[in-house]
Amino acid sequence: MNPISLQQIIPVLLSLTPVILFLGILKLLDSFKLLRMRDVLLAILIGTAAAMISYFINRFFLGTVKLNLKHYSQFDAPLIEETLKGMYIFYLIRANRVGFRIDIAIYGFALGAGFALVENVFYLHAITDSNPLLWIVRGFGTAIMHGGTTAIFGILAKTDVDQRQSAQFLSFFPGLAVAMILHAVYNHFILPPLIMTGLLILTLPVLFYLIFQQSERSTRRWLDIGFDTDQELLNIITTDKMSDSKIGLYLKSLKESYPAEVILDMICYMRLYLELSIKAKGMLMMREMGFDPEPDATLKPALEEMVFLEKSIGKTGMMTVSSFLSVRSQDIWQLKLLAQK
Questions:
Q1: pTM of the entire predicted model
Q2: With bands split at pLDDT 50, 70 and 90, how would you rate the model's confidence at 304?
Q3: Is 110 in contact with 36 (CB distance < 8 Å)?
Q4: Residue 76: CA atoms inside 13 Å, Cβ hemisphere, count?
Q5: Nearest to 62 by CA among 50, 49, 71
Q6: Does residue 218 carry a pLDDT above 80?
Q7: Which of 72, 251, 267, 279 keeps 20 to 30 A from 144, CA to CA?
Q8: 70-94 as b/e, with b when 16 or more CB fall inside 10 Å?
Q9: Nearest-CA neighbor of 157 among 78, 222, 101, 77?
Q10: Residue 277 near residue 226 (C-beta atoms within 8 A)
Q11: With DSSP H G I counted as helix, E B as strand and the rest as coil, what are the percentages for the chain, rounded to 5?
């Protein structure tokens, strides 16, 4: 394998300009600044790793198994590549590392950027053509396709998980199937490459603008409703209203099911959860206004206490607590957002 010269690498970098630019625009439009730059850079790095793994898998099937190149690129490669890129999206959603769909769209494009970088480097050894038109297609077409399909997978999976309020495995299959199909259609070259590239340029920005707008509205609605609800519940738990409230009456009815110390831990957990939830929502509001809150030294011990209380309460008890707090994926995510500070 001959070393890559600077003259060769420049077209590769130019071909990535559109997807990096689009990724930067999405990041700038994120008024809540939900993702740190190192998170985006990590996703790009993971995208490069996925591309390298994909390269060796493809090389095995094409070189050792001797599969037909055209058939493989149209049907088999999309399945392998979208699965490898999608594994990190799967982890992020399952681990509640993302709160809203715009986050997952940014992650998807970052993964696609990393994947396209490695793919274009390997592409140099197959085709040495320096025609600018070729690399425009690679940049505006293939690179954006990789980012777009992964982002669409993440958006569809996140939407389904939010609707189910549970990150079930079935929630991920429809989005992954759509990503694979879109990738396969692109690889079939049903339309000339320049026309396919033009369609991507026209449709994807509109699609992601609509997703961005919906995500921003969803974030503000969640902040407004959640902040008021958390304040109201915290007021009930921390005042003499507790004993006469629905929460208090229900907890009294559980005294035959749980020891007194577990019920006390439930109350402590709810109070601590609500205090941290209000703090997290306040931090997001400050970010939207352009402020970057200073790290709070009390957060780490408070989060550690929550983990201790979860273990003390147990899984069955936590199900009871969650029913009062109406815990959703965004609510779990916001506590992890605090832990990042």
A1: 0.71
A2: confident
A3: no
A4: 16
A5: 71
A6: no
A7: 72
A8: eebbbebbbebbbbbbbebbbebbb
A9: 101
A10: yes
A11: 80, 0, 20
| Crossing angle for the helix pair 193-238 and 329-339, to the nearest 10 degrees | 90
User: What is each CA distance from 212 to 58, 102, 103, 160, 222, in whole angstroms?
Assistant: 35, 6, 9, 17, 15
Three-state SS letters, 98-145: CCCHHHHHHHHHHHHHHHHHHHHHHHHHHCCCCCHHHHHHHHHHHHHH
Largest CA distance in the chain: 78
How far is it, in rounded angstroms, from Cα 336 to Cα 104?
16
CA 121 from chain center: how many Å? 26
* pLDDT of amino acid 32: 54
Structure tokens that stand for 305 in this block: 């206490």
What pLDDT is attached to residue 274?
84
Residues 71-78: what's their mean pLDDT?
A: 92
* Residue corresponding to tokens 């030294």: 297
Model confidence pLDDT, tens digit, residues 90-142:
999 998 888 778 888 889 989 988 898 888 777 766 665 556 666 666 666 77
Label residue 233 exposed, middle or buried (CB < 10 Å: 0-12, 13-18, 19+). Answer: buried
Confidence of residue 184 (pLDDT cuts 50, 70, 90): very high
* pLDDT confidence band for 176 (50 / 70 / 90): very high
